[in-house]
Amino acid sequence: MQMTIRMPDEYKSRIEEIVNKTGLKKSDIARIAVKNFLESFEAREQGESPAAEAKDLIGVVDSSIPDLGTNHRRHLLNKIKRQ
């Protein structure tokens, strides 16, 4: 199926940057964007939580601070004081 879309100039310039950086075609970028939107939309329709949508990001970073989740305020204040 072929589709024509209109978009703001700022989107066009950003897409051109991505084309130059990645070597992808504009149509590839459009297909990827539509696919991501449809998957996200379907997840919301099925009642998935925002955490489920971000499941590939959860646990990706290791801070090496075992109690960061429970004592984040204390760690943040200590870091600010050290600066």
How would you characterize the overall build of this protein?
This protein is mostly helical. It has a domain at 1-56. It contains 4 helices and no strands. The mean pLDDT is 86.
- Provide the residue-averaged pLDDT: 86
Shape: elongated
Radius of gyration: 20 Å
Please provide the count of β strands: 0
The end-to-end distance, rounded to whole angstroms, is: 57 Å
Overall helicity: 55-70%
Spell the H/E element sequence: HHHH
- As residue ranges, the low-confidence spans are none
Task: Work out the helix count.
Answer: 4
For the biggest sheet, the summary is: none
Structural class given helices, strands, pairing? mainly alpha
What percentage of the residues does DSSP assign to strands (E)?
under 5%
Summarize the structure.
This protein is about 60% helix and about 0% strand.
Question: Which features characterize this protein?
Answer:
mainly alpha, 83 residues, 4 helices, 0% strand
